[in-house]
Amino acid sequence: MSRILVIDDDMIFRSFLVALCRKRHHDVVEATDGRHAERILADETFDLVISDLFMPDKDGLEVVRGLKARGYGGPIVLISGQFVSSEDTYAKAAIAFGADAALPKFGDPADLLSHIDRFLAA
Q1: CA angle 8, 118, 83 (to 5 degrees)
Q2: Predicted confidence (pLDDT) per residue in 36-76, tens digit
Q3: 0.90 cut: is pTM over it?
Q4: CA dist., res. 116 & res. 12, Å (int)
């Protein structure tokens, strides 16, 4: 069982992500935004971080930057309703900032699960 941090300011979508990860029997911790995640990350470690891109206070790119500055070497998946494809400007920016994947928020859940399984198997 792996530990996953899910960061999203949308409670309904965050609950969906948590349920999806728990379906694979992962231990999941929720954060409501980047600042909340920062407080959690100060005391806990995770095997994978999934974060929304656009959030109040501290967005997903700031989360990625903060994780990298702390020396976090695990996979980071950024999701956004703005991503249309991996060629999207925001998706390219997410990867340039250090995310390992940039996926559409409302894409196929099987695609997200495939990324999760692949990253945690490595």
Answers
A1: 40
A2: 999 999 999 999 999 999 998 899 999 999 999 999 999 99
A3: yes
A4: 20
